[in-house]
Specification:
Elements (H helix, E strand, L loop, with lengths): L11 H13 L12 H8 L3 H13 L3 E3 L5 E3 L21 E2 L14 H9 L14 H12 L7 E5 L2 H12 L5 E6 L3 H9 L3 E8 L2 E2 L1 H9 L2 E7 L12 H11 L6 E5 L19 E7 L1 H4 L6 E5 L1 H13 L6 H12 L1 H27 L11 E5 L3 H10 L2 E2 L1 E2 L10 E5 L7 H12 L11
Parallel strand pairs: 3-13, 5-6, 5-8, 8-9, 9-10
Antiparallel strand pairs: 1-2, 4-11, 6-7, 10-11, 12-15, 14-15
Length: 446
């Protein structure tokens, strides 16, 4: 693709603008390998240093990634709105799409009745001077978090978990700083770290969460922040165990300068206990989103942390977006207070647990070792992602390639189980067995 694109420019700024234009128009789609620095310099009649500066600027903005001997490529999801590549291509006709990572819409609480109740009791419009975190929402959130052992001092709300993480990283770090992230880890977070110009350091993990040795290595390499998924880790389903939490807290106690961010995105859907790390460092934040249990369109997360950290996030929000809609806050509060909704969320979590565990068991019958202690995804190590994804597509199944989630972790594919039925499981397991080589030894830590 890049060989057919006409690069232009005689300065680093102009060359980077030309490449960005190609990405935006989809002439340089995600994954495209760009010409080597010297080759493009010769083509444009400029010095290699000029092209190198253009590539560096785009890497710092998260549009490009260096792939070692594979050269420089357009990132899988560069932070620039594209005309076509931003639109997710549909699976092949008749194929089952297990790549989305979304909850089953049939198991989400209906919002209509609660929206109607809010409309009937809307009250006076909220003005700029009275907007912010609703006291009743804060009170309910603190009670829910305290029940899980999370310290609940200072509190604010953000527009979802990723919005909260972005504000936390932006308030504490500067471009070039290192962030320790799980590997494999949440693709959106990896993209965000790149877009912020931060340097990711991958931390291997197993079914019990980040490996202590991996965290220690990242800290020794200069990581100024650590992001940990408490439960239902995306993409592996890992859950921080009590023993692992104790080990990590002991390690982090010697690093009071580290920003610790915990993401509990599965929240009420997680069928396993929470073992928080909150408070292990002087600067910490714990985020709980409502999107997975109650609906992806509900862009709200509760954020608690130390006084300075929460004040920075709330202050940055105030001078930017201002606040999270109080209408949305009231809707979330109504959902929390409804026993019928709580029962529906509980049953949804149990349904996901059954589907996930049955798929793991079916894969084990084929000699395949997969991972998924909690959540809506299963992580299956494979010898070659491209051949596995292609073979599954030809068999009528669309799964996500592990490359979207990996830094240095071994190849794998991610299967979202939320759309599966009990009759699907043996058929899917057989297709996965046919599409993959025998799995490596248990454990997916690099």
């Amino acid at each position: 693709m890049s060989a057919r694109y006409q690069f232009t420019g005689s300065t680093a700024v102009a060359i980077s603008a030309s490449i960005e234009s190609g990405i935006r128009t989809d002439a340089l789609p995600p994954g495209t390998t760009l010409p080597p620095v010297r080759a493009l310099a010769t083509e444009l009649g400029v010095s290699p240093a000029t092209v190198a500066r253009a590539y560096q600027e785009l890497r710092q903005r998260g549009l490009l990634a260096t792939a070692g001997r594979h050269g420089t490529r357009v990132r899988p999801r560069p932070p620039v709105a594209a005309r076509r590549s931003a639109l997710r291509p549909p699976p092949l006709p008749g194929a089952r799409d297990l790549s989305l990572g979304e909850p089953d819409p049939r198991l989400l609480p209906p919002l209509g009745p609660h929206l109607a109740a809010l409309a009937a009791d809307a009250g006076a419009p909220v003005g700029y001077s009275h907007a912010g975190v609703l006291p009743e929402l804060a009170e309910a959130a603190r009670a829910r978090l305290a029940a899980d052992g999370v310290p609940t001092g200072e509190l604010t709300v953000t527009g979802g978990a990723l919005d909260g993480i972005e504000r936390l990283l932006g308030a504490h770090l500067r471009p070039g700083d290192a962030v320790a992230v799980e590997d494999p880890g949440w693709a959106n977070l990896l993209d965000l770290v790149a877009a912020l110009g931060l340097r990711p350091i991958g931390v291997p993990l197993d079914d019990e969460g980040p490996l202590v040795a991996g965290v220690a290595s990242a800290l020794a390499a200069g990581a100024r922040a650590l992001v940990v998924t408490s439960r239902a880790q995306n993409p592996t389903g890992a859950t921080v165990s009590a023993a692992r939490a104790e080990e990590l807290r002991a390690l982090l106690a010697d690093r009071p300068d580290l920003l610790l961010i915990e993401d509990d995105h599965a929240a009420e859907l997680a069928g396993v206990p929470l073992h928080p790390l909150a408070g292990a460092t002087r600067s910490w934040a714990f985020l709980r989103s409502v999107s997975k249990p109650y609906g992806p369109d509900l862009r709200l997360a509760v954020l608690v942390g130390d006084e300075t950290t929460v004040a920075r996030v709330a202050g940055r929000t105030r001078v930017g977006a201002g606040w999270v809609s109080t209408v949305l806050q009231r809707l979330v509060l109504a959902l929390w207070r409804d026993p019928a909704v709580a029962d529906l969320v509980r049953r949804a979590g149990e349904s996901y647990d059954r589907r996930r565990e049955r798929l793991l068991a079916a894969l084990a019958e084929h000699g395949l070792t997969a991972h998924g202690r909690s959540g809506i995804n299963v992580w299956l190590p494979v010898a070659d992602e491209t051949s596995a994804v292609t073979a599954l597509r030809d068999a009528g199944w669309s799964v996500a390639p592990g490359a979207l989630y990996r830094i240095a972790a071994p190849p794998a594919v991610r299967i979202t189980i939320s759309a599966l039925t009990s009759t699907d499981l043996p058929v899917l397991a057989a297709a996965l067995a046919d599409a993959t080589h025998p799995a490596p030894p248990p454990g997916f830590a690099a």
